[in-house]
Amino acid sequence: MSKITPFLMFDGKAEEAMNFYVSLFDQSEINSVFHHEDGTVLHATFKLKGVYVHR
């Protein structure tokens, strides 16, 4: 089985993209999301198939 090696870039839609990706893979979840004052994502941590991803 192949291991996921995430390299993800988001253009203003990080939260929507994270929700989409975690819905596709088992062992996936959003752990934390911190927002700028304007509501955009400043930093987030999530898992895809058990692998942590930092944005």
Please provide a written account of the structure.
The protein has 55 residues and is α+β, with helices and mostly antiparallel strands. The protein has one domain (14-54): Roll (2,3-Dihydroxybiphenyl 1,2-Dioxygenase, domain 1), CATH 3.10.180. The protein has one helix at 14-24; strands at residues 29-35, 41-48, 51-54. Strands 1-2-3 form a 3-stranded antiparallel beta sheet, covered by helices on one side. A hairpin with a 2-residue loop joins strand 2 and strand 3. The longest helix has 11 residues, at 14-24. It is elongated, with a radius of gyration of 11 Å. The relative contact order is 0.28.
Note the topology.
Blueprint: H1 14-24, E1 29-35, E2 41-48, E3 51-54
Antiparallel strand pairs: 1-2, 2-3
What would CATH call the homologous superfamily? Answer: 2,3-Dihydroxybiphenyl 1,2-Dioxygenase, domain 1
Structural class: alpha+beta
Please mark out the parts with pLDDT under 50 across 5 or more consecutive residues, or reply none.
none
Q: Summarize the biggest pleated sheet.
A: 3 strands, antiparallel
Helix content: 10-25%
Number of strands: 3
Quick description:
It contains 1 helix and 3 strands, in the order αβββ. The chain has 55 residues and is of the alpha+beta class. A 3-stranded antiparallel sheet has the order 1-2-3, covered by helices on one side.
Keywords:
55 residues; alpha+beta; 2,3-Dihydroxybiphenyl 1,2-Dioxygenase, domain 1; three-stranded antiparallel β-sheet; 3 strands; elongated
